[in-house]
Design brief:
Helix content is 0%, strand content 17%. It has 107 residues and is mainly β. It starts with 6 loop residues before the first strand and ends in a 16-residue tail after the last strand.
Length: 107
């Protein structure tokens, strides 16, 4: 994707993990669609260097773990989304999360 792109649609691509820095060269990105994949875990730093991201769609995945490590807890740990200062829309519907809190957005 050229650096001037505003959006990236990676829906329905059978992606199963988001690695740290996966989108680090896309700092101008405003929307990112990762819905309808096989994502089960989001690692810390997966969305680093996305200061302009307004919308993140993670719906219809198999997410049960958004935290450091992989111990199959079904919650959102502190700081996972904290480096997204302009984020206005986060879609997590139709996943397997059992518990979350606002802490996922704190540093």
């Amino acid at each position: 994707m050229p650096p001037c792109g505003e959006g990236l649609d990676l829906s329905s691509n059978q992606i199963d993990t988001i690695q740290p820095g996966s989108f680090s060269n896309l700092s101008r990105l405003k929307w990112l669609h990762l819905s309808s994949n096989q994502i089960t875990c989001i690692n810390p730093g997966s969305f680093s260097n996305l200061p302009n991201l307004l919308s993140l769609d993670l719906a219809c995945n198999k997410i049960n773990n958004i935290q450091p490590g992989s111990n199959h807890l079904s919650n959102i740990q502190t700081g996972v989304f904290s480096n997204l200062p302009k984020l206005k829309k986060l879609l997590l519907n139709k996943n397997q999360l059992k518990r979350s809190s606002a802490c996922g957005f704190r540093k």
